[in-house]
Write a structure and sequence with these properties.
2 domains, binds FE2/S2 (inorganic) cluster, binds fe (ii) ion
């Protein structure tokens, strides 16, 4: 039976953890609060160390409203800083990547080294009376932590440590990504007309796999597919047990050649790191994606592909081919997920649909919505309001 306008807008007759209010995807105030309360307090994937391999290499990125520099300092350590001059806040580095021993602010030419020290102030005599000097004008350093060469940053000096936050969440990947140094061979960015959480929901639920032509053939035809049980970790992370794929069922070549360390032929593993990082391994190749929210309904999605550092060209070619078969911009998954999140956003934007339902309870079997419920449970803690009733602020 169809529903009237009033029935359509009624609060779902479900526990609060089983649904979310659509305002969490669309409300500009909630978006701003997320940037401050959640994104700045959680560990964010910034880059991989192979993207800054040489001393003085740097990359810049936007995170939670700030521009960030990640660099390999002259002493070999990786450091991160807010990309804002100590003088009057000008953005110091404008390029997405580069190599420089000194960074000069383009506004009044104060300079900094790659350890965050201010190394010179233009015409310093004028500051002598006021006591402003380079010794007190260092950059704002940002905490960083590393796993498998993945560099994470955290803007909140009081947030849980890297080790406490992630705990055992990487365990399913230890033998694959921890065996040898990795290297990024693919990096693409795409703008999605969708909220960042809608994108990450596609990583956290398997209920939409019917939409993926290849997946439903190579994975869902296995009986064990539906029996796998999700594993949840503190702070909102999750993993899915390894499973076998049969690529031949979609007319693709089985992945028996050049497996990554620890991977058996045609094996598939997943780890989801709160709040927005997803690591997928398909025998020969690794994909990692993360998001940068631009506005409530616009999200930058970045995807990186990884191989083993320094591996022979023929091995790398297999990884690139297998990676792109699924995950490159012209692979199968990316456009299919992209279309899914954009047709959701289109209806959310103008309030056509008031609630989203995450009420699948299957004892943690893979189509259970438990990962998403855990995500929103954590979201509520950071935001001081439940996702099903986000105007009820308790902070
Ligand atoms: S704002 Fe950077 S030197 Fe003035
Ligand atoms: Fe998907």
């Amino acid at each position: 039976m169809s529903r009237t306008a009033q029935q359509w807008m009624e609060t779902p007759a479900l526990p609060g953890s089983d649904y979310v209010d659509s305002q969490i995807y669309t409300d500009p105030h909630i978006f701003e609060e997320e940037q401050k309360l959640l994104k700045r307090a959680t560990w964010k994937l910034a880059c991989h160390e192979s993207e800054i391999p040489e001393l003085y290499d740097y990359r810049t990125l936007d995170h939670a409203g700030f521009s960030i520099i990640v660099t390999r300092s002259g002493d070999g350590n990786i450091r991160a800083f807010i990309n804002a001059c100590s003088h009057r806040s000008a953005t110091i580095l404008s390029e997405p990547a580069g190599n420089a021993k000194q960074w000069m602010c383009p506004f009044h030419n104060w300079t900094y080294d790659t350890e965050g020290n201010c190394t010179s102030i233009t015409l310093p005599e004028g500051y002598e009376e006021a006591g402003v000097c380079k010794e007190k004008a260092g950059l704002r350093e940002v905490r960083n932590g590393m796993k498998f060469g993945l560099v994470f940053i955290n803007l909140d000096d009081d947030a849980p440590s890297f080790d406490e936050f992630f705990g055992d969440a990487f365990e399913t990947l230890e033998d694959v990504m921890g065996a040898e140094p990795l290297e990024v061979f693919h990096h693409h960015k795409a703008m999605m007309n969708a909220n960042w959480k809608t994108w990450h929901e596609t990583n956290m639920e398997f209920y939409h796999e019917f939409l993926h032509y290849v997946n439903r053939n190579i994975a869902m035809s296995h009986k064990s597919y539906f029996e796998r049980r999700l594993k949840l970790y503190p702070y909102g992370h999750g993993t899915v047990p390894p499973m076998q794929q049969t690529y031949e069922r979609a007319g693709l070549k089985e992945r028996t050649d050049k497996p990554l360390p620890g991977m058996s032929p045609s094996e598939f593993r997943i780890a989801l790191l709160y709040p927005d990082t997803c690591i997928l391994v398909r025998t020969t190749a690794i994909r990692i994606d993360t998001t940068t929210p631009i506005s409530p309904n616009l999200t930058l999605v970045e995807q990186r592909g990884f191989g083993i550092k320094g591996e022979p060209e023929d091995v790398r070619n297999v990884r690139v081919r297998d990676h792109n078969q699924f995950w490159g911009p012209f692979g199968r998954n990316f456009p299919e997920d992209g279309n899914a999140v954009e047709i959701v956003e289109k209806n959310l934007r103008n309030g056509a649909a008031p609630y989203g339902i995450f009420a699948r309870h299957e004892d943690l079997k893979c189509m259970d919505d438990a990962l998403i419920r855990t995500f929103y449970d954590e979201w509520g803690k950071y935001m001081g309001r439940p996702a099903h009733n986000p105007t009820n602020v308790t902070l």
